[in-house]
Thiopurine S-methyltransferase
Amino acid sequence: MATSGQGNEQWFERWREGRIGFHSDSVQPMLARYWSHLSVSTGARVLLPLCGKSGDILWLAQCGHAVLGVELVEQAVRSWFEDQAEALPETVARTNFNRFESPERVGRAGVTFDVGNFFHLDAALSDDIDAFYDRAALIALPEAARQRYALKLAELCRPNVEGLLISLIRDGQRDQGPPYVVTDDEVHRLFAPNFMLERLGERRDERGMTEVVWRLCRRAPLSC
Ligand SMILES: C[S@@+](CC[C@H](N)C(=O)[O-])C[C@H]1O[C@@H](n2cnc3c(N)ncnc32)[C@H](O)[C@@H]1O
């Protein structure tokens, strides 16, 4: 399971060997198209679980959002700083994580990376999250880890926190993830207990893969 050391090793290998076919320097079309469907104010702190060094990080920061990316593999974060031609900042050790901060610059808000295992993020220690964005995070995890992921996300979000999530459906092929297929039913099963869900749209590619975009909004806990 991806939360264990053994499951995580594949990610260290992938980054070491440059097998990062999931990565794009450009913003994801679905993010650019659907982010405005959320009511996230400029200056809001946006959590990106399992963030890699995605082009979405910069795009969100250029929208004025303070990005908090959580990434297991330090090499990915080092590589982000290299790509920005920025010197690697001093790391700040936090419980279970090493923090790297890129301060606000002209044309963009600050970007913070917590390097460590997303599942070890402590809601009590984490900064307040105003919104989140999941691209290739849920679908990077095997089935057994996805329930824990959904619960962790719920734990990190106050009521009314909104997020965009992209799931993946594939036609008639065996599921040899990552990326894993996560059906609409599974998205509902995982998130509906803690989030209101709205299916915003989908995009199918020539390989028979369909990305489905969801708006999630954290429900208030039920009172007795
Ligand atoms: C499929 S990639 C997606 C990266 C990014 N979201 C993107 O769209 O390019 C998944 C990323 O999650 C990281 N990762 C995997 N398990 C993790 C965990 N438990 N905690 C934090 N990061 C993790 C991997 O190192 C990898 O960079």
